[in-house]
Amino acid sequence: MPHQQMLMLFGLLPVATNISTWWNFGSMLLACSTMQVMTGFFLAVHYTANIDLAFSSIVHITRDVPYGWMMQNLHAIGASMFFACIYIHIARGLYYGSYLNKETWLSGTTLLITLMATAFFGYVLPWGQMSFWAATVITNLLTAIPYLGTTMTTWLWGGFAINDPTLTRFFALHFILPFGIISLSSLHIMLLHEKGSSNPLGTNSDIDKIPFHPYHTYKDLLMLTLMIIILLITVSFFPDILNDPENFSKANPLVTPQHIKPEWYFLFAYGILRSIPNKLGGALALAMSIMILLTVPFTHTANLKSMTFRPLMQLMFWTLMATFLVITWTATKPVEPPFTTVSQMASLIYFTFFISNPILGWVENKITKNST
């Protein structure tokens, strides 16, 4: 085993002294991933991938299986906590220029896409009313792809409509993809420790380093403890706070819910999809809302790595954060004015952040040069 990996194994790998609490979300994501795998395996043992029995099997788990209600809620609410942590993790990477470690950033973005696919397949499994119709809307987007769309949709459905073969496929994919997530996570961590973590100042971390343990392990333990406390309080006292009331009814293909929407962590992409009237354009915009993260390392033109000393990019960053929340909010509203107009404007601002990244970098370089 290489010397660096040995140090990483024993927590002695040196890291920058000035990394803040925002760097603790990586270890929190690892803990979330472990919890999702463990609770998911427990649920898979009792789940039945059949459209006539799937909903009943979830009811059976929550009512009859010892501690089944806890496992089911930990898995469902844990998914929301997982995505909350990963969105904060990505935002930190954007703000502090962590994306300049290209291999780590690209592996992390690939990991995000895999996680979103896994979560989508899992959302369908309870076979509730909202799960069924959300799956119908999203999978129908594949038909917008010229020539291959209909064939791909038919294969994914296992027929000409969402039915029993669809549920079997989604259960299989939801069970298999976590193995890919574990592999990608391992690769992501290895690449991170090979290059080293960034820091708030965006300076060379080699100048001032300390061992990871015990200085930063205590920070990780504190944040993990807080996360577990929040999770257990939510599971114990507010287990249905994030559930859609429609999903407490068994899926009925003959009754369409008044407002079809996915889980909250997909709403920003769903809002961008709904903001474009054209089906193919909406599908492309939805895909680009995630895939555009892959372009960030290649569009960085600023001399400074972190946004700590880049006021123009700080303004754009916080505009992006506000825009993310606005799109998420409008996605829960009916497809009618003024929500459609607000969603379209917010979607435009969302993509403007990534387009303006190289332009503002050049502007800031010129301002810095003229001021020195």
From TrEMBL:
<dbReference type="Pfam" id="PF00033">
    <property type="entry name" value="Cytochrome_B"/>
</dbReference>
<dbReference type="InterPro" id="IPR016174">
    <property type="entry name" value="Di-haem_cyt_TM"/>
</dbReference>
<feature type="transmembrane region" description="Helical">
    <location>
        <begin position="221"/>
        <end position="239"/>
    </location>
</feature>
<keyword id="KW-0249">Electron transport</keyword>
<dbReference type="GO" id="GO:0005743">
    <property type="term" value="C:mitochondrial inner membrane"/>
</dbReference>
<feature type="transmembrane region" description="Helical">
    <location>
        <begin position="104"/>
        <end position="125"/>
    </location>
</feature>
<keyword id="KW-1133">Transmembrane helix</keyword>
<dbReference type="InterPro" id="IPR027387">
    <property type="entry name" value="Cytb/b6-like_sf"/>
</dbReference>
<keyword id="KW-0830">Ubiquinone</keyword>
<feature type="binding site" description="axial binding residue">
    <location>
        <position position="89"/>
    </location>
    <ligand>
        <name>heme b b566</name>
    </ligand>
</feature>
<comment type="function">
    <text>Component of the ubiquinol-cytochrome c reductase complex (complex III or cytochrome b-c1 complex) that is part of the mitochondrial respiratory chain. The b-c1 complex mediates electron transfer from ubiquinol to cytochrome c. Contributes to the generation of a proton gradient across the mitochondrial membrane that is then used for ATP synthesis.</text>
</comment>
<feature type="transmembrane region" description="Helical">
    <location>
        <begin position="344"/>
        <end position="363"/>
    </location>
</feature>
<dbReference type="GO" id="GO:0016491">
    <property type="term" value="F:oxidoreductase activity"/>
</dbReference>
<dbReference type="InterPro" id="IPR030689">
    <property type="entry name" value="Cytochrome_b"/>
</dbReference>
<comment type="similarity">
    <text>Belongs to the cytochrome b family.</text>
</comment>
<keyword id="KW-0472">Membrane</keyword>
<feature type="binding site" description="axial binding residue">
    <location>
        <position position="174"/>
    </location>
    <ligand>
        <name>heme b b562</name>
    </ligand>
</feature>
<feature type="transmembrane region" description="Helical">
    <location>
        <begin position="280"/>
        <end position="300"/>
    </location>
</feature>
<dbReference type="InterPro" id="IPR036150">
    <property type="entry name" value="Cyt_b/b6_C_sf"/>
</dbReference>
<feature type="transmembrane region" description="Helical">
    <location>
        <begin position="132"/>
        <end position="158"/>
    </location>
</feature>
<dbReference type="GO" id="GO:0008121">
    <property type="term" value="F:quinol-cytochrome-c reductase activity"/>
</dbReference>
<dbReference type="GO" id="GO:0045275">
    <property type="term" value="C:respiratory chain complex III"/>
</dbReference>
<dbReference type="InterPro" id="IPR048259">
    <property type="entry name" value="Cytochrome_b_N_euk/bac"/>
</dbReference>
<feature type="binding site">
    <location>
        <position position="193"/>
    </location>
    <ligand>
        <name>a ubiquinone</name>
    </ligand>
</feature>
<keyword id="KW-0679">Respiratory chain</keyword>
<keyword id="KW-0408">Iron</keyword>
<feature type="domain" description="Cytochrome b/b6 C-terminal region profile">
    <location>
        <begin position="202"/>
        <end position="371"/>
    </location>
</feature>
<dbReference type="Pfam" id="PF00032">
    <property type="entry name" value="Cytochrom_B_C"/>
</dbReference>
<keyword id="KW-0479">Metal-binding</keyword>
<feature type="transmembrane region" description="Helical">
    <location>
        <begin position="73"/>
        <end position="92"/>
    </location>
</feature>
<keyword id="KW-0812">Transmembrane</keyword>
<dbReference type="GO" id="GO:0046872">
    <property type="term" value="F:metal ion binding"/>
</dbReference>
<dbReference type="InterPro" id="IPR005798">
    <property type="entry name" value="Cyt_b/b6_C"/>
</dbReference>
<dbReference type="InterPro" id="IPR005797">
    <property type="entry name" value="Cyt_b/b6_N"/>
</dbReference>
<keyword id="KW-0999">Mitochondrion inner membrane</keyword>
<protein>
    <recommendedName>
        <fullName>Cytochrome b</fullName>
    </recommendedName>
</protein>
<feature type="binding site" description="axial binding residue">
    <location>
        <position position="75"/>
    </location>
    <ligand>
        <name>heme b b562</name>
    </ligand>
</feature>
<dbReference type="InterPro" id="IPR048260">
    <property type="entry name" value="Cytochrome_b_C_euk/bac"/>
</dbReference>
<feature type="transmembrane region" description="Helical">
    <location>
        <begin position="170"/>
        <end position="192"/>
    </location>
</feature>
<comment type="subunit">
    <text>The cytochrome bc1 complex contains 3 respiratory subunits (MT-CYB, CYC1 and UQCRFS1), 2 core proteins (UQCRC1 and UQCRC2) and probably 6 low-molecular weight proteins.</text>
</comment>
<keyword id="KW-0813">Transport</keyword>
<dbReference type="GO" id="GO:0006122">
    <property type="term" value="P:mitochondrial electron transport, ubiquinol to cytochrome c"/>
</dbReference>
